Amino acid sequence: MKFQKLLVVVVTLFTVTLFSQSDKTYRAERDKVHSLIHTKLKVDFNFQEQEMNGEEWVTLKPHFYETDKVTLDAKAMEIHKVTMNNQPLDFNYDDFELVINLPRKYNRNEEFTLYIKYTARPERVKQKGSTAITSAKGLYFINPKGLDKNKPTQIWTQGETEASSCWFPTIDAPNQKTSQEIYMTVPQKYVTLSNGKLEKQTTNTDGTRTDYWNFTQKHAPYLFFMGVGEYEVIKDKYKDIPVDYYVEKEYAPYAKDIFGNTPEMLAFFSKITGIEYPWNKYAQIVGRDYVSGAMENTTAVIHGENAYQRPGQLIDENVQENTIAHEVFHHWFGDLVTTESWSNLTVNESFANYSEYLWLEHKYGKDEADAHLFEDSEAYKQGQNYDKHLVRFYYDDKEDMFDAVSYNKGGAILHMLRNYLGDDAFYTTLNTYLTDYKYGTAEAHQLRLAFEKVTGKDLNWFFNQWYFNSGHPKLSISYDYNKLRKTVTVNIIQTQINEFKFPFAIDVFEGGKRTRHNVFVDGRDASFTFPFTKQPDLIQVNADGVLLCDINENKVLSDYIHQLKYAQNYAHKREALLEVAKHQDDKNAFNAVAGAMNDDFYKIRILALENINLINKNSKRNVIDKIMKMANNDPKTLVQAAAIETLGKLTDPALKSVFDKGLQSKSYSVLGKSLVAMYYIDKQLAIQKSKTLPLEVKKIVATPLTRIYLEENDDTELSFIAGNVMAGMFLSPNKKIQSLYKEAFDKIGKSNNTEAIQNLADDIVAKGLQYKQYNFDKVGINLLRQLVEMQKANNPSNIDNNLRVIQIATAKLLE
Questions:
Q1: How far apart are CA 666 and CA 650, in angstroms?
Q2: In this predicted model, what pLDDT tens digit does every residue of 437-454 receive, in sequence order?
Q3: Distances (CA, A) of 728 to 11, 155, 750
Q4: Could you give the angle at the alpha carbon of 222 between the alpha carbons of 298 and 469, nearest 5°?
Q5: How does pLDDT run across 70-97, given as a tens digit for each residue?
Q6: In this predicted model, what pLDDT tens digit does every residue of 657-671 receive, in sequence order?
Q7: Is 724 helix (H, G, I), strand (E, B) or coil?
Q8: Contacts of 156 (CB under 8 A, 6+ apart)
Q9: Are strands 300-303 and 282-286 parallel, antiparallel or unpaired?
Q10: SS3 of 481, please?
Q11: Which pTM value belongs to this model?
């Protein structure tokens, strides 16, 4: 699963308790009393009541010991009947577990099939989450009554972690594997999707149709999936394997632009694992109001609405591409071989996370991959993650395992392991691990044993410090030069509590000549001495950027200028650029930042544009001319947009032609930056252009438009702004954007614009319900209370309609 991480830091603006004390309960793998063999379901849907009528034939056998009882997970259901061979069975049900008395004792060699008639009631599900009683209801009805004319009616399921048992009785644990059949009866107008192959479609006399989906291989219950809606199915293929994209009709023309790299991903991952894609199809569907980023349901992946993009966005970048790769790789790591317990989630999610690096490196080059690794590592470091083990047997709730340790840090650890062992050994081990445990489960120790089996190396030291312990090295670096002997000694002191040992790359630069030294740090205090021909201009530690660590060293401006020019790793270029940019009153520093605008890698060019100071005395016309050329002609539209934003800070009417050209761009990022830049030199033209944009384009460039409309005090656009406030305040990682939309929230809250308040309240409710498992409903209630106070303070004479809107929204979140 690719999780969509809410910015919990913004909750400091609103008093909501999100964290509880750490639970000291040991979280073991679920005991296997019975083993699932096969699951057959026949279901139809009550859209009005948001319920599902189900019949199930579940085949099991005792795992080892004799037993005369079966316990199945079944949450908030109505159980109508349980039989075996048409004979009724006694059972007890407490809304969470269904305990069935068998007619006799069965041994481990005896399979038996239970029939269960039931009604799934997902709206009544209450599961204990990490912070409160939250709803992970497994089965989601989207706009089931069709009351929202701007949203289609859909059904989709989300099983991970243990929510499949909200829509069919099962043993809802990742260490179970079962084959499946599902008969789904739906109104004729809907398309369905499930795991495996669509074997048959039967038209019924009552206007419905029954689709029969058959999945003959075995996978975990949390990977079961059903999707229902009015979709266009865009067909693609990998070899002879169908690759389908289920999208709403509006996005059908762009489906292959969004998902079209999927066949190449399947080919690439098949090649590096040495295991051909092991399933019979690969389908992807986009679900409205989806509760996470995406989910790797076997052969039937679901993506959130973030996947939907138009050509004007895709020309900049496909923001879903990493997620698409992530879910594809899960079909080996997670679906084919599954974690035996949530404590060992790393064998699923760390590999899926690292697949993003592998794909970017393969498709776009090492710079793109290294930039992604850096951003992921920084996200891990910035969270409350340092004390968490990668393999964790103590946690409050299983949902807590889906964090930047299991994902980001785990991916970085695999990158270190690949670097240490070499590509051949790394990929050979992936093949060995997947082959040995296919269609089964595994844990981190089995992963270690696979690496040891292939390489002949003992890797306990690596796994003990990175998998079964916490933190990362914090290094204090110093240098001693001996000019007589022409040597430099690099001193490395670890300042963190847990001592690590690790391979370490050190580059010695003499001018532009670089000499790489690979050493192994095996102690809290280590020193390494290297020869030089002339006094080095720079010593670059962690030169390949592989080690996950924090480094403290004393560098001066000349060091950073040299580093910016000659370092090869993205993180080092970035570090140098940001440091050099602080000293642009120095001519050499300014020229170094300007020179970075010529870097081969577009993200460095963008960073240089974002940080160059065109106001200081060192600014030269030729630098501005260079930026103008980048705005017009850089091969990356994101660089063009950054160049336009930089030029816009000059508020120079002579640049109007650049901004005018930007307003005609196919790129929405260029268009948005051009609107803001033009606003400060020709307000009328910018506003006129903004008013003529189609609504779907306005939504995409909402942030620059919001900035313009707020500065212009254009209250006629408040209702438009209102629909984007929640995403801007809570889902953007950019603090300036968060602040902009907080300003918009305050302005709407103080206004008497009922339409804007209605749109804002609707958005608060929608986001509150969509992300309820993150307690976002409580954040929403808090926001609505603030709106009430704003209205009372600013519109005491005419607030009846506005308060009614807010009260209705509050009631929806409190239901």
A1: 24
A2: 999 999 999 999 999 999
A3: 14, 27, 19
A4: 105
A5: 999 999 999 999 999 999 999 999 999 9
A6: 999 999 999 999 999
A7: coil
A8: 140, 142, 225, 226, 227, 228, 229, 285, 287, 290, 302
A9: parallel
A10: strand
A11: 0.95
